[in-house]
Description:
31% of the residues lie in helices and 20% in strands. The strands form four sheets. The chain has a seven-stranded mixed sheet. It has a six-stranded mixed sheet with strand order 5-2-1-9-18-17. Strands 6-7-8 form a three-stranded antiparallel sheet. The relative contact order is 0.16. The chain contains twelve helices and 18 strands. The chain has helices at 26-38, 84-90, 104-122, 179-182, 211-219, 256-266, 272-289, 292-310, 315-327, 388-396, 435-438, 444-461, and strands at 18-22, 43-47, 97-98, 101-102, 130-133, 137-142, 147-151, 156-159, 161-164, 187-188, 203-207, 226-231, 330-344, 350-358, 365-369, 371-374, 415-417, 423-429. A hairpin with a 4-residue loop joins strand 6 and strand 7.
Amino acid sequence: MSSSPSRRPDKQAASGPRIAIIGAGFSGLLTAVHLSRRLPEARLWLIEKASRFAEGAAYATRHADHVLNVRLGNMSAFPDDPDHLSRWLATQPNWSAQGLFITRGDYGRYLRSILAEALAEASDGSASRLTLVHEEVVGLVREPAGWSVSLGSGDALAVDIAVLALGNLEPAQPAGISDAVAASDRYVADPWRGATLEDRARKVLLIGSSLTMVDVALAHARPDRSFTALSRRGLAPRAHKAADLALPSQTYRGSPVAVLRQARKAALTSDWRAVTDDLRKSARDLWRAWSAGERRRFLIHLRPIWDVHRHRLAPGVANRMHAMIASGELSIEAGRIVETRIIETVGGGERLSVSWRPRGRARSRTLSVDAVINCTGPLGDVAESRIPLIQGLLATGSARADTNGLGLDVDDDCRVRDADGAGQDELYAIGPMTRGAFWEVTSVPDIRIQAADLAATIALTSL
């Protein structure tokens, strides 16, 4: 389902605006679907560099233990149709779940079905108003009217509006990883790019202890293989309860520390999961009310605590993780890497030597492993991204990083601010790239609302 765009499509060929959505994961797909419905006269290009549309890294996995970390009932792609996913599953002869948590691979199939329907709806019998472009966007240049979208093939696409649906940034290289180790085939920089482990890899270090760590450990688990997960605090994700919880209703206000105190008090009389879910409803307003200093203090001191309580494991996955810990297959340590180097074994092979310092200790320990996998998650500062499109936007002043570096600086309507701080009616961002402005915008329940709102904003400004 891909086609190549013409180099300079004639603006008169369509009566509505020409819109490029860059990125075809969940954010880009839902933006394209809503725009297609709100602007039936528009020409839309959904551009994706990965091998498959509508999946992104999260839903391309086929592993049975890689399940959603949100219950089925809250994973419909459409906020005004909460049963949409359930109805689709009812038509499928085969799908898998652990309790109320379906596999991420099945959710990817669900998203591909939405894309197929959107393509069918957008076709007028002679040509589709929604075109899939299987290319990498390497540049976005402002023109007198709109943008020129530069593709990796050398082609360029002229559009009136561009939407950046880039998902998460690439992983960062953790501190302490030497250049020699980073270049070694025993180091996996990005576990979502088809990472494999050799059969002889018996002892593996996982850098990070969040959801990615759990995914990697489950995917590569073997009776003769052990994993050590190392993170600054050694905190692992908590688990959902098998059944839904009644949510308390409380208004949270004040500084990050004040909110933490309020949440702890609420947890004395309610399950902490229910308190976290209740607090999440206020998270965006709290984030936007905090000063730059309060946001920084939250990110440094409280974010790790928030993440392990907010981003939880399905009960079955949590049971698998705890079973691996009990059997000695997995251990989770708190500390930081001091140094890594390549060492030769007696047989002439290579291993990796990792010097690490336990949290709160002055003396380092040494760990010899067959492989190291980076599970730290996406890069924390957009200005450090090596993605050509982002580099170009920042270099030309067409975009700027938000004050905490979490993503691009956007206004309340997701317009990307230029270097002078002005929001642009022709350039928008959605999803994790807007985290610096909205914070809670990384999961389906949040992004599906943002996509619908963004399409409404673009439709209104295109009148």
